[in-house]
Amino acid sequence: MNRTSSRLRHALVPLLATLVLAGCATPAAVDPARLPATPPAFKGQQDASRVLAATPISAEAQPQGRWWTVFADPVLDQLVERSGRNNSSVQVAAGRLAQARAIARSTDADRLPQVDLGAGAVRQQNSTTGNRPQTVVSVGANLSYEVDLIGRLSLATDAASQDVRSREALLRSTQLLVQANVAQTYLQLRALDAERTLVRDTLQAYRNTLRLTEVRLREGDVAELDVARVRTEVASTESEGLALDRRRAELEHTLAVLVGDVASTFEVKPADWSTALPVIPAGVPSTVLARRPDVAAAQSSMQAAQARAGVAKAAWFPSFALTAAGGYAAPEIGDLFRMSTRAWGVGALLSLPIFDGGRREAGVQNANAGLDIALANYREQILVAFRDVEDQLSALRLLGEQSEAQSRSVASASRATVLSDSRYRNGLVSQLELLDARRSELRNRREALQVRAAQYVATVGLIRALGGGWA
Fold this sequence. Notes:
The protein is of the alpha+beta class. It has helices at residues 2-21, 74-86, 88-109, 152-218, 224-258, 293-314, 359-425, 431-465, and strands at 114-124, 134-147, 319-330, 342-351.
């Protein structure tokens, strides 16, 4: 009994030592000091009343739903939904997610027993004994199972699972990017519609002035120079209108690609710009960036790199596998399944690498370098996220002030045009003063429309920067 116990103790010592050393294969945690801390609030907000503790971001990307509906535009809703079904970038991201899931299933399968069935026939002769050649027919099953003592297989599975999470987040990031691009392109197109209407109305006013001036020329009240000036304004305004038409066609073609349609058959009919402009509430906490899908994707990639670093370390430790085989072998097919022809066997294999020319060390160094890269990418993505939000918050604040100033400018320019037109008709001012007033009004109105369009674009940009919403 003592001899049996001694043998068992000697057999278990290497195994226990292996299990103790297995902890060394566990990947080290990332130092939070290497990641940016979350500031209390966004600098660009006008009201930073909601103050939070400064802690590193832990990303959990969450779909934010139909955020574009806050603009209350049915055409925009339809375009965004079409892009979700047909956009090529979204389909590519979905395909990459499917690949990652397949790889994860394949990696997880390594943790399960592997069973193979086989059959064969061998024509053989033993030249030593001089036996006649004979054919041996066999059929059997083989079973193998690697015991995950060190945790290498579980770490590989964890890495593959994190890759799946990263691809899921990248798919949501692609969807959000495409949705934002559709919304911004559509809103710019609607702004051009409003600008084209303004230019056409101004052109009609110039044409009316031209007709009036031509009548006064025939009556001898004005010189031909006055007619030439008005004709110049008419032609110049027509040119500006055509430039806007060209720009609108380009935006329409861009929308066609975003929604996965052919530009030759795609059309968004001109319409009034009645899209609502949502107001982002003050005091949005900076922790909402944790739900940004691109930040979540970078975090999952970092965690996958951590797991792969553990897999590389596990290569230094022994691997233990159990095997079993059973089947039948006979020189004649008719005798194949007789009890006398059956055979079976079980075994265990412990493999301990001794010398590989530095391959395992190079694998560990490569995995650690990959972890450093993933950590740097994660940190960079967090910094980019804060920059994106601050850019759009600053843009919205300054555009709001610019819009107020531009509104005052438009009011003054409109009043100057009314006064100049009245004085011109009464012969109190020259035609040149009237043309200057109308030109100034047109310029200020177009700039006001451009500022308004920039506010819409910045609002969409902020929604995207916040991960698809602010609630």
